[in-house]
TrEMBL record:
Membrane topology: Multi-pass membrane protein
Record family assignment: Belongs to the ABC-2 integral membrane protein family.
Organism field: Actinokineospora fastidiosa
Keyword flag Signal: no
Descriptive protein name: Transport permease protein
KW Lyase (keyword) present: no
């Protein structure tokens, strides 16, 4: 991948992100859905974890930030499915270095989604939630590191979902429900200790649990680790699992996208367009 392909991909990603979020509907969705976490933080402002003086909002905030990273997965899946349907992927396949630029564009859109969501929630959240270590350089380094690892680890899942599911509407509906369901059982908002043992084992195989654990470790004091599954932050395990998923993502992501592009044809695109017209 050369500099020209990267520049084309960044430009394409910026155009895609801007066109999606500059419309009235896009702006409403951007601010409305990111305002919901702020409401929960305000409501829980004066609550604390049982037996401690740690603010409940301080535990919820990192879970919300982790969830925003994971929602970028669904955004990637939605964009990919939509662009398979409208022929964008087919056109990228036909242009020299088009697929390289397309990959960069998808990644850029995901990064922009996460950065804007983090800014909308994190900046007010630091003032709403007491006890957030704003002046701690280690917190910022940890936050940036886990966001980057989480994005690299989760983006290939978005490519896989967008490749497997042809309808953007299905991704928008069921994808949201599945993501929220995983968030509920991954300890982002509720203790995992209350779940069945087999659910705990299954969830720990996925990156969402570890991303949430890592986020909590940089936001919360050491005493809060007592509320975790093993009563510790398991930093080495967190970095290891997320690093393994990230390595898998760097290898599998481009392969999945190339295989998806190879299956694209004019006839397949027209068939999907006809199905979309029937739905409308």
């Amino acid at each position: 991948m050369n500099a020209n392909a990267i520049a084309l991909g960044v430009n394409r990603g910026w155009i895609t992100w801007r066109s999606t979020n500059s419309s009235r509907e896009g702006l409403f969705n951007l601010f409305f859905y990111n305002a919901i976490p702020l409401v929960f933080l305000i409501v829980s402002r004066d609550s604390t974890l049982p037996g401690t003086d740690i603010a409940l909002g301080a535990k919820l905030l990192p879970g919300m930030l982790a969830l925003m990273v994971v929602f970028s997965v669904m955004g990637t899946a939605y964009y990919l499915s939509t662009e398979r349907e409208d022929g964008t992927l087919l056109r990228a396949k036909a242009v020299p270095r088009g697929m390289s630029a397309y990959v960069v564009g998808l990644a850029f859109v995901a990064v922009m989604d996460v950065l804007v969501s983090l800014a909308i929630v994190l900046v007010p959240g630091m003032f709403i939630v007491p006890g957030v270590p704003v002046g701690d350089l280690g917190m910022w380094i940890g936050l940036i590191g886990y966001v980057v690892l989480g994005l690299i680890a989760c983006l290939p899942l978005g490519v896989l979902i967008g490749s497997a599911i042809q309808s953007p509407r299905v991704i928008g509906g069921f994808g949201f429900l599945i993501t929220m369901g995983l968030a509920m059982v991954s300890g982002l908002f509720f203790p995992m200790q209350d779940l069945w043992g087999w659910v705990q084992v299954l969830v720990q195989a996925l990156p969402l649990y570890w991303l949430g654990l890592g986020m909590r470790s940089v936001f919360l004091p050491d005493a809060a680790a007592a509320y975790e599954l093993t009563e510790s932050w398991r930093t080495l395990e967190t970095l290891g699992v997320l690093g393994a998923w990230a390595a898998l993502g760097l290898i599998a992501g481009p392969i999945l996208l190339r295989r998806t592009a190879r299956r694209e044809s004019g006839a397949a695109m027209e068939a999907r367009r006809a199905q979309a017209m029937q739905r409308t």
